[in-house]
Amino acid sequence: MGVMVTKDEDDNRALSRRINADLKEKVERTQLADGEDPDFIANSEYFEQYEKTGRFGWVWFVLVILAVASLVFIILL
């Protein structure tokens, strides 16, 4: 879909109003019944089997840092 824009300010304002009204209408159609904004990523089938990181997720970060430090130490030695 293409939009042709002229240099006339009145036409630009009218076009902007129409585009904004169309976008607002589309957003209102896609909102959930209870008034919340849709979160298509959290509700997707791709993320159904995933779990949030537990409280010991920081251990992996420490292990990666130690591995990188060990690698740097071995290379420099």
Provide a concise account of the structure shown:
With about 80 residues, this protein is an all-alpha fold. The protein has helices spanning about 10-30, 60-75.
Reconstruct the topology from this structure.
Layout: H1 9-30, H2 58-76
Overall pLDDT level: 78
User: Share of helix among residues?
Assistant: 40-55%
| Major sheet size, sense and barrel closure | none
> Which term fits the overall shape?
elongated
Extended strand count: 0
What is the helix/strand order? HH
The percent range for strand residues is: under 5%
Radius of gyration: 26 Å
The assembly state of the depicted protein chains is single chain
- Class computed from helices, strands and strand pairing: mainly alpha
Taking pLDDT < 50 over at least 5 consecutive residues as the criterion, the unreliable ranges are none
Total of DSSP H or I helical runs spanning 4+ residues: 2
Terminal CA distance reads 62 Å
Please, could you describe this protein's structure?
The mean pLDDT is 78. It contains two helices and no strands. With 77 residues, it is mostly helical. 0% of the residues are buried.
Characteristic key phrases:
53% helix; single chain; 2 helices; mainly alpha; elongated
